[in-house]
Every structure is written in C-alpha cells, then in structure tokens.
Amino acid sequence: MLDLCKYIIGVDLGGTNLKAGIVGRDGNILYQFSIKTNAHAESQVISHQICELIAGIIKNVRIEKSDILGIGLGSPGLIDKKGETILFSPNLSKWRDIPIKKIISDTFGLPCILENDANAAAWGEKWVGAGKDVSSLVMLTLGTGIGGGIILDNKLWRGINNTAGEIGHMSIQTDGPLCNCGNYGCIEVYASAPGMVRRFRELLESGKASLLKKDEEITAKRINEAAVQGDGASLSIIEETGRYLGIAIVNIIHILNPGAVVLSGGLIGSGELLMRPVKRTIEERVLKASYKDTKILFSQLGTDAGIIGAAGCLLKELEISA
C-alpha cells in the first residue's frame, strides 16, 4: 500500500517562516507555499497554522489523500526521545511541550514524523543535495538561529536524548552576550541573522559609514546585499561572521572529521564573501591531518532543504520499518 503512494508532505517550521510542500519520492518539490511565523504566538496558534497550511496545500494541488505517503515535520529546538513532542525552541518563545506529531496524525489520519529542522535539512542535502557523495556530513543552518545536523555513516546522529547537533549553542566566548538559550557567548549570538544585525548596528553607532542608515530597517539580507555592492561596514560584518563560523567548524572537524560541512540558510547569500573568511580561518587553526579530506560546501537545495529533508526523513523511516 505505502509503495503505491506518490507524494510526501514536507513541513519546515522556522522562526521567521512556516513552509510546506508536496515532495515526490525522487526528492523534487512539486508545489510549495509559505506564510509568516508569529514567533511569539501561543503554541495552539502555531499548531493551527501548520494544520491549515497542510490542508491548504492538499486542496490547492488537488491530490487524493490515498496518494500521500505521510507528513514530515522539521521543527527548531529540542525534541523528546520518542520523536513526538517539541520540548523547547529558543526562537519560538511559547513553543514548549507540544505533542505536534499526534496533533498532525490525528488531524489528517496519516503517518507523521517529527524531526529537528536542522537534522531534516541535513538529511535533504544527504539525500539529493550537496552531501549525496559523502557518508558523513555536518550541516549548519544559518538563519534566525543556527542549527546543526549530523550524519555519520549514512545515519542521522541524534544523541542519547535526541538533542545532538545544537551547534548554535556552542560557546565560543565565555563572557559574551546572553543567548536565547540562557547561556552566554554562543555562536548563534554572533553569526545568526539577529547577531549580524546587532553587530552591524553597534558598528554604525561607533560612527562607521555605510550605505545603510541607522534609522532604516536593517536585516541580514540587506547587509548581504550591501556587502555585494562593496559597502565597507557590511563587508566587515560578513568577514567577522565568517571568522566566527570558521572557529566553530574547526571544532566540528576536530571532533567528527566529516566528509563535508555544508552551510545553508539565508546568510549564505553573500557567497564567497562569506566562504573566504570561513576557509581562511579553518586553514589557520585546524589540524591539517583532520582537514585534508573535508569539503566545505554551500547547500545545493537552498531554502528547500528543510521541506525536502522532512519528506525524506519520513520516507526513510517508513521504508526502514516496513
């Protein structure tokens, strides 16, 4: 029966956007749609949004329920050991202890799998993206927060409590700024989109000239765009972000020695302006024997990695258990 199903619904819950799509069993997205996430809304509101988005996609694409294999959901934050409940998400302030897997399964009468969003995105890249030629990779998702997904010997590594890969909360400065997680000096404070904006505003306050002005809306995307145009202040922030990421990646390489480290998310929009300081910092600090066979790559799936990976996680889970 399951083998006859043609499609999987992949859902990617982010701190900024909620996205869902119909994914074929070859990893291609046939249709997708997104809405803004209200990061401070009650959990019931966000759960309702997810269900409405899934229902809307099924209706708009006009596919039969019998053609849907199931629903894969990638969510930020910590997930319980059974993979059923979202325990805590630093960037969704009221998203705690939510049994979202049961909510979705009961609403649609379909199998559902719940996976950390960075794990899902990493699996997407391993399945049909930048990491399809390696057996082990680490993926960093650079956006509202910094997530991490770890694949070792072609298997997702979740850790004993299903919480492995929280790379964004690796402390790189013991007395650094307070992070949403409650710790200080996490890489997420420095190299996430809000972290970039905070550091950029500090630079403007110090008197640094820029194409972007203090009284206008400043986003990580606008900083990237200004850097591409040659704006000195923006270039310095991208350079600094690359150094922070490079330090984090050195630690990852020394511990896991993966075949690839994949960078994804909105912050990679500056391309080589970001990649150059990342690689330079790695080469300055890494043990050469650990690094010689590791590739540092940008995502091939881009912002689709979460949707594709969530669908791929469901496909893999059901095929393993079949």
Automatic annotation (TrEMBL):
Single GO BP term: glycolytic process
GO molecular function: ATP binding; glucokinase activity
UniProt xrefs under Pfam families: ROK
EC primary class: transferase
Alphabetical UniProt keywords: ATP-binding, Kinase, Nucleotide-binding, Transferase
SUPFAM superfamilies per the UniProt record, alphabetical: Actin-like ATPase domain
GO CC aspect terms: cytoplasm
Annotated EC: 2.7.1.2
Similarity field: Belongs to the ROK (NagC/XylR) family.
Name by which UniProt lists this protein: Glucokinase
Protein source organism: Kuenenia stuttgartiensis
Gene: GLK
